[in-house]
Amino acid sequence: MADAILRLEGLRKAYGALKVTDDVTLDVRPGELHAIIGPNGAGKTTLIHQVSGLAASDSGRILFDSADVTRLTMAQRVHRGLARSFQITSILPGFSALENVALAVQARSGSSFRLFGDASRERGLNEEAMSYLAQVGLGHRAIIPSGQLSHGEKRGLELAIALATRPMLLLLDEPLAGTGHEESERVVETLRGLKGRYTIVLIEHDMNAVFSLADRVSVLVYGRVIATGRPDEVRANPEVRAAYLGEEAA
Amino acid sequence: MNEIATPSPAALDVPRAPALRRYGVPVLVFAAFALAPIAAAQGAEGYILSLLTRVMIFAIAAMSLDLILGYGALVSFGHAAFLGIGAYAVGILASHGIESALVQLLAALGASALFALVTGAISMRTKGVYFIMITLAFGQMLYFLATSLSAYGGDDGLTLPSRSLLFGANLLKGDHAFYYAVLGCLLGCYLLCRSVVASRFGRVLRGAKENAVRMQAIGFAPYRFQLGAYVLAGTLCGLAGFLLANQTEFVSPAYMTWQRSGELIVVVVLGGLASLHGAIIGAAAFLLLEEVLSGYTEHWKMIFGPLLVLVVLYARGGILGMMGGRHG
Amino acid sequence: MSTTLLIIQTLNGLQFGIILFLIAAGLTLVFGVMDFINLAHGVQYMVGAYLAAAFTAMTGNFGLGLLLALPTALAFGLVLEVLIFRHLYDRDHLDQVLATFGVILFLNQAVKFVWGAAPLFVPVPEILSGSIEIAPGLLYPVYRLAIIAAGLGVAALLYGLVNHTRAGMLVRAGATNAPMVSALGVDIRRLFMLVFGFGAMLAGFAGAMVAPILSVEPGMGDNLLILAFVVIVIGGIGSVRGAFIAALAVGLVDTLGRSFASNILRLFLDSGAASQTGRALAPMLIYILMAAILFFRPSGLFPVRR
């Protein structure tokens, strides 16, 4: 399939003797929502770290938008349109929600080596940041220090920051992690709204969310992809049932 | 309009602390320094002016450190090196007969910036404790270099023929003239740092302090900004060194001992991290405390040491924190 | 550059390195296990020297003085730990730097207050005085050889303790992953105290050993502290083996550099310039070494934490 926007070829990462990802090969097509599921310790987060550039890969290649980005830093990959969110909320707690997002806008709009002028009053940055906050339903919480937001709101902010980098592809690492029932429904709705407008790689434990949102699903077990396909195909795959879904039922 | 109301553009402006809180303390501080010479004329004028001048010079050095320590969380333990560079730029040039303030100042700032760029580029590769140690090591390196410069006094230091000449005249000779020149420098530094901290650049620096990984994940390379701040801080401290040499008309390796670097950290934390004017208050508190305590006993450090321990253990936020005004 | 001088300076460098190791060993463990940056470690060395001087003067016997100084140095370290340091373990590095800096200010002044600003001199013990001929025509002071031997003995002992005892195993595990050790149900506070007291005693031992060959004076620990930091940063924080190798390297480079930098430069420069540059360069050598090592290996030669 030549039209993959993201292609992983034989990615490996080991910590000492522990192989966390092992020969991961995967295509993500433009516009799809591609979920990656797998039991705990399957290497999902490590894979996201490798793709986003937070962790270096031991071997293999990452092709994004038909360019090899394997050796680029995280920041360089962001500038090419590869954004991510974090499983464990990663925000700037002392900054307002608005400033968290405005910084992401600032990152791609002109030079940040400006020593004069109050950045927090730059209307251009703030207005654009506001629009992303509104997308995740946080418009009314913009000036709250982000450390004081509720957990669910922080998950939303995490998403708004990723959107503000104007990505082609979003890597979302368990956006529902730790959210309550109501909050998680809100995040799922937000994701549904993003689907189709962005290519999304979604790691999630919540199977209901995964099977209702995903166009395709890949199953990662012990660092290897054991199946990729439409949700119903994957659900029916005997190997997946044995290795993963069966285990959950037991 | 659907249920997510889009706020009006005016609401986008971040609310500010009341003007009094924001500007009150710094304005008071600078007003006090501006008026102090008048009050000093009633007493031991020369002594008071020289003490306050020293306070302001240390305030510049401490403020420059606050820029990287308070806003960048870069614990540099070699900041006194820049005091030394600035001072030796004056001393070395003066000993070759170059006494123009302009030339000396340019040399002081240039050499400081260069040293900061080179050592910063190496130091920033390391993190945490390693960063503290490597900045300390660079400071020591320079200290030992200064002690071995026998042509420029070595251990004993170097006495200047006079203060730097402005436009070929000895305009800085008088205590008052020099006092106000230093005050001008302090004010300039303060306004510059204020602006930098609030600017796009400063926002990235502050963001990297809170969460460097997050900054990378939105496309920033914190290294460049931290290095930039390090160079700026070093350069400003070089200015303090230039002034220090001029005040004392003497240059010595003692300006850049590691204890001096430690004192600068003490001053910044004592005043209140990440507030800029806190560095001024800290410098005043430190030097005045030293002056008062050493008036009582030559063993004043036996009082000051435990005091410092107590401040760290029990009084977080420094003097500004104790005054209750959160700032920023 | 005579061979005799080279041998003597190599031995001096070795002896200096051994002393550095004694100080750095405790520092690197405290650092590695507790993530605690203790600037006051250098004053432990100074206190050890003062205690040795005081007890030697009191008893008239250096051996006895040393014997009394060691437990006192240990007790002193433990008192500091209980009073101050243990409240700093979960603070950030900046707080640790500040508080221990305060301790330095106090102790440097306190010894001046108690014993005066003038240096104290401790005589070399009778049986270890004089020099012996280690090679034909090559005399070397017995006492310095004794320092080298004692230091190597302590290094071997430490190696055994760290690698072959349960406490040592915990210390190593703690340096790699402290939360895990604590999760295993080990009383981490007691372990910390043990490591801290032991480190303080080693530094005190180093101070006591050099008391007869250096002048015992206020602030004598400050420069050694910096050098010990250079050592543990080069060696890799938490690694005793790294500290040993780095300590010897720093001791040798510093001592030999100071003696021979000018001579070596004379190969490239004219005599006057060489001696000028050599004198300026020599004291900077170890810092250049450290910067170079950190440039290529930002976590030192033997990084412990992964």
TrEMBL record, chain A:
The keyword NADP does not apply. InterPro entries: AAA+_ATPase (IPR003593), ABC_AA/LPS_Transport (IPR051120), ABC_transporter-like_ATP-bd (IPR003439), BCA_ABC_TP_C (IPR032823), P-loop_NTPase (IPR027417). Residues 6-247 form the ABC transporter domain. SMART domains: AAA. One of its GO terms (cellular component) is plasma membrane. Keywords: ATP-binding, Nucleotide-binding, Transport. This is ABC transporter ATP-binding protein. GO terms for molecular function: ATP binding; ATP hydrolysis activity. It comes from Salinarimonas soli. The keyword ATP-binding applies. It comes from the Bacteria.
UniProtKB/TrEMBL annotation, chain B:
Keywords: Cell membrane, Membrane, Transmembrane, Transmembrane helix. It is found in: Cell membrane. The keyword Cell membrane applies. It holds the Pfam family BPD_transp_2. One of its GO terms (molecular function) is branched-chain amino acid transmembrane transporter activity. One of its GO terms (cellular component) is plasma membrane. The chain crosses the membrane at residues 23-41, 76-95, 101-122, 129-152, 177-202, 264-289, 301-323. The keyword Transmembrane helix applies. It is a multi-pass membrane protein. This is Branched-chain amino acid ABC transporter permease. The lineage of its organism: Bacteria, Pseudomonadati, Pseudomonadota, Alphaproteobacteria, Hyphomicrobiales.
TrEMBL record, chain C:
It is found in: Cell membrane. It is a multi-pass membrane protein. The chain crosses the membrane at residues 6-31, 66-85, 97-122, 142-162, 191-214, 226-256, 277-296. Belongs to the binding-protein-dependent transport system permease family. LivHM subfamily. GO terms for biological process: amino acid transport. Keywords: Amino-acid transport, Cell membrane, Membrane, Transmembrane, Transmembrane helix, Transport. It comes from the Bacteria. One of its GO terms (molecular function) is transmembrane transporter activity. CDD domains: TM_PBP1_LivH_like. This is Branched-chain amino acid ABC transporter permease. GO terms for cellular component: plasma membrane.
